[in-house]
Write a structure and sequence with these properties.
Layout (H helix, E strand, L loop, with lengths): L4 E3 L16 H4 L3 E9 L2 E2 L9 E4 L4 E5 L4 E8 L4 E3 L3 E3 L5 H14 L4 E5 L2 E6 L2 E7 H4 L10 E8 L2 E4 L9 E5 L2 E5 L4 E8 L3 E9 L6 H13 L3 E7 L2 E6 L4 E7 L2
Antiparallel strand pairs: 1-8, 2-3, 2-4, 2-11, 4-5, 5-6, 6-7, 6-8, 9-10, 10-11, 12-13, 12-14, 12-20, 14-15, 15-16, 16-17, 17-18, 18-19, 19-20
Length: 258
């Protein structure tokens, strides 16, 4: 599915013009996940399997998600309020419930809510609505690289990212145990040595089977052979692992096998 980016012409909220911007250090660079929501004096239930995520980036942006589109806009953090400018977002085909939830969250963020950080918790309040969120690193900590079975779900060539083909989900995987790794592209198996750095992996002595891969596996097989051909950069956020070929354009996105 192609993801388009649109600019949502919503008016930015107005905060206190003379307020200081001393709150940046408590929020910038952190991601928070919703714990509870009070709306109109009552608990507000999120759509099943969704959760609010707010990411305060280091370049003055607020990135938000409520289970459908990724929303973003400039944010000014005053001493008391979040002042969010006009927001943009991806344009995914969501069901009516999740679409309405997106609209509700954007309206809330655009209302210049007050904020309060208490340890790992962030509370946002606007009118009779209160959202309590927990720091992502506490609510959903990064999984360890070693010992976790990771399943490939995304294949990256240059600027194009594509999902695994229908019927092949869960067939391509990657595991590190000590200084060895094993992997599969769904049709070809791999094993060898791996040196784990702070944000890099270097593969060596790679042995692979040599089958004839069916058409539906060729793209992920090509990507995996490129990734395992030397050094890759990697990053982990919660239950997601991303590989990027060092000096190349090939990458893989993986998630923790539950």
């Amino acid at each position: 599915m192609t993801t388009a980016v649109v600019i949502l012409l919503l008016a930015g909220g107005c905060g206190d013009d003379d307020a200081s911007t001393g709150g940046d250090g408590e929020l910038t660079g952190r991601t928070f996940l919703s714990e509870s929501i009070i709306d109109g004096g009552r608990d507000r239930e999120m759509v099943a399997d969704t959760r609010i995520s707010l990411d305060f980036t280091t370049d003055g942006q607020l990135s938000a998600n409520a289970g459908c589109n990724h929303l973003f806009g400039e944010v000014t953090i005053t001493s008391e309020r979040l002042v969010v400018g006009p927001m943009g977002g991806t344009e995914m085909g969501c069901d009516p419930q999740r679409h309405a939830q997106d609209e509700w969250l954007m309206d809330f963020l655009q209302s210049s809510p007050t904020w309060l950080v208490d340890g790992d918790r962030l509370t946002l309040t606007a009118g009779d609505t209160e959202i309590v969120l927990l720091d992502r690193e506490v609510a959903d900590p990064d999984r360890p690289l070693v010992g976790t079975r990771w399943l490939v779900d995304t294949i990256i060539f240059g600027d194009v990212a594509s999902s695994m083909r229908a019927g092949t989900e869960g067939s391509a995987w990657f595991v590190v145990e000590g200084e060895r790794f094993t992997a599969s592209s769904g049709c070809r198996d791999f094993e060898g040595s791996v040196a784990v750095g702070e944000d890099t992996l270097r593969f060596g002595d790679v042995v692979q089977t040599d089958p004839m891969c069916a058409e539906e596996f060729r793209e992920v097989d090509d990507a995996m052979q490129a990734i395992l051909g030397g050094e890759v950069e990697y990053s982990i956020e919660a239950g997601r692992l991303t590989f990027t070929q060092t000096g190349g354009e090939v990458g893989l996105g993986l998630h923790q096998d539950e």
